Amino acid sequence: MLFHAQVVVHFPPTIDPALQAELIAHEIERGVELMQAGKLVHIWRIVGKTANYSLWKVDSHAELHTLLTSLPLFPYLEIALTPLCEHPVALQAATIER
To answer: Which domain holds residue 9?
Structure first.
């Protein structure tokens, strides 16, 4: 199953800067782990925002939920998910010899 996620980070203005830096460092570590596991397929920063678009490959909705809630920044994230499937053009293009 493939999912597109739009993720926006909302840190409270009162968060301790040291805690924020620690959470971000752990988030990067966890993101690398998820990419190495093939679950987080790709991630793009949204220019000018503390936000990203990402592509996730999972076996179930429950797995996606577990992975997202494992993110250190999860309590501060607003996440919009869109399930994806193959498009007929992509399927057709895959059969064309180049």
So the answer is: 2-94
Across 52-57, average pLDDT: 99
The one-letter code for the residue type at 70 is S
pLDDT reported for residue 27? 98
**Angle value at C-alpha 32, between 47 and 10, nearest 5 degrees:** 45
Question: What does the block give as tokens for 7?
Answer: 């993720």
Give the span between the Cα atoms of 55 and 12, in whole angstroms: 26
**H helix intervals, the chain:** 17-36, 61-69, 88-94
**Mean pLDDT for the chain overall:** 95
User: Based on the structure, what is the number of domains in the chain?
Assistant: 1
